[in-house]
Design brief:
Layout: H1 2-14, E1 37-43, H2 50-59, E2 64-71, H3 86-101, E3 109-111, H4 127-136, E4 145-149, H5 154-162, E5 171-175, H6 195-198, H7 201-210, E6 215-218, H8 220-223, E7 227-229, H9 230-237, H10 241-260, E8 268-270, H11 275-278, E9 294-299, E10 302-303, E11 309-310, E12 317-323, H12 326-340
Parallel strand pairs: 1-2, 1-4, 2-3, 4-5, 5-6, 6-12
Antiparallel strand pairs: 7-8, 9-12, 10-11
Helix pairs in contact: 2-3, 2-10, 4-5, 5-7
């Protein structure tokens, strides 16, 4: 009997068994799926609702162990909730998504800094920055750690300034930054710098110019591929219980506001934070990697004070994603909603 227990214990260790797997997720495959990585989600949940979709999708994905959720700040010019305490409001929005999906699960969101950094060398300490440091410096797990940033980089940049050693223990996946010259054409009426980069340029300077953190970047030309039609939203998301209604309303309210202010909205919305799910939870089974998506290796640019890219001959190689498999993302999202919530 002792030998049998020993063999079973070894087998569970070899298969990556985790006692804190997300057993609340209902799926034919959730019984055989355990976390292959740890993630910390850092996003402006009180702003563009694409972050709400990304968080809900990730919460329903049993192959990731979510170690923290951080609400990040916006600016007054961001066009969404740019008021004071926007990171605190983002934390509250994240808590609502958690409650809608897991009534009993004890996930806890924290607030990042409510202000952006003033310079690339001075941190803005916060609960969010401390959460990143604490998780990165753990020595009791071998699961790789990804910090998923769907907005500005204030919290991860501040964490690195406070504890530079975290760069040895995590990979940053960032939705942000404009197109690289020679790889893509900017969209009509484009902004420079790109929206997320502009939320805190000094933080981007810290990450790209000073730190040695491994970076997987999803710039504007890649995240803009994540186009979701409003008709699909109505057909496939809205019927999925209260969480589906909540997600549907988040887009409907934004589109209504735009329409009422004379902006021609069209029939789609870009759920640009969804690659954060594709690059983590939806990695390949064998030789695990986000193999459904394409990237190039580029030398990390120097970020200037105005947010533009400059050549950096000492820049380390970073992944820059050029193509996102949107079919995989959204078919998986719809399937998980369907499996977990009764469609009306």
């Amino acid at each position: 009997m002792k030998r049998l227990i020993y063999l079973l214990t070894c087998l569970l260790c070899l298969t990556g068994f985790q006692t804190n797997a997300q057993t609340d997720v209902h799926s034919e495959f959730s019984k055989m799926t355990s976390p292959r990585m740890r993630v910390i989600v850092d996003n402006d949940f009180s702003g563009d609702p694409d972050g709400l979709f990304q968080l809900a999708h990730l919460l329903l994905s049993p192959s990731v162990e979510i170690r923290g959720i951080i609400g990040s700040h916006l600016t007054a010019s961001a066009g969404f909730d740019g008021a004071n305490e926007s990171a605190t409001k983002a934390k509250e929005q994240a808590d609502k998504i958690i409650k809608e999906i897991f009534v009993t699960r004890k996930y806890k969101a924290v607030a990042g800094s409510n202000e952006g950094m003033d310079t690339m060398t001075v941190a803005k300490d916060s609960e969010g920055a401390q959460l990143i440091i604490k998780e990165a410096m753990r020595t009791d797990t071998k699961l790789p750690l990804y910090v998923l940033c769907g907005a500005g980089l204030t919290d991860i940049a501040s964490a690195w300034l406070l504890q530079p050693e975290i760069s040895k223990h995590l990979t940053l996946i960032w939705i942000g930054g404009q197109e690289y010259e020679g790889t893509a054409t900017p969209p009509p009426g484009y902004s420079t710098p790109e929206y997320n980069l502009n939320l805190c340029i000094p933080a981007a300077q810290t990450i790209f110019n000073l730190s040695d953190i491994p970076i997987w970047q999803v710039p504007r030309n890649a995240y803009r591929q994540c186009v979701y039609s409003l008709a699909e939203l109505y057909k496939d998301v809205k019927p999925a219980g209260s969480i589906g209604q909540y997600l549907y309303d988040s887009i409907y309210n934004i589109m209504t506001m735009l329409h009422n202010n004379g902006y021609p909205t069209g029939e789609t919305y870009v759920l640009g934070d969804s690659p954060l799910v594709s690059l983590t939870a939806l990695q390949s089974t064998f030789e695990a990697d986000p193999s459904a998506n394409d990237f190039i290796l580029k030398q990390s640019p120097w970020i200037a004070k105005d947010g533009t890219y400059r050549y950096n001959q000492k820049g380390r190689l970073i992944r820059v994603y050029t193509r996102i498999d949107t079919r995989l993302i959204y078919q998986d999202m719809i399937a998980k909603l369907y499996m977990n919530y009764p469609y009306k």
